Amino acid sequence: MKPIKRALFSLLIAFSVIIFWRGAWGLLDIYFLPNNYTLSSALSIVIGLSILAVTHYWTKELE
Predict the structure, then answer these.
(1) Are 28 and 44 in contact (CB under 8 A)?
(2) 19-26 long-range contacts, Cβ below 8 Å, gap at least 24?
(3) Could you give the percent of the chain with pLDDT greater than 90?
(4) Which region holds residue 33: left if phi is over 0, alpha if psi is between -120 and 50, else beta?
(5) SS3 of residue 1 by DSSP
(6) Exposed, middle or buried: residue 46 (CB in 10 Å: 0-12, 13-18, 19+)?
(7) Which one, 1, 20, 40, 42, has the greatest CB density within 10 A?
């Protein structure tokens, strides 16, 4: 693949990831404890870290 095509493809992928997370955060702001921003943020961190810990443990077992 030519360097210019690779760069454009990388920019397209980066843009897609940013748009996805923008949408995900927007939906979480609307639906996940919309009246309590602090609790929503704290629970999001805890849930996210828990998922990362579990998936890290699972990937370790795959080795």
Answers:
(1) yes
(2) none
(3) 83
(4) left
(5) coil
(6) exposed
(7) 40
The span from the CA of 30 to the CA of 48, in Å, is 18
Specify the residue for token string 């360097």. 3
Q: Name the token pair of 3.
A: 């360097």
pLDDT tens per residue across span 33-61: 999 999 999 999 999 999 999 998 888 77
Helix (H, G, I), strand (E, B) or coil at 63: coil
Write the single-letter amino acid at 56: H
> Amino acid letter at 4?
I
The mean pLDDT of the chain is 92
Does the pTM exceed 0.85?
no
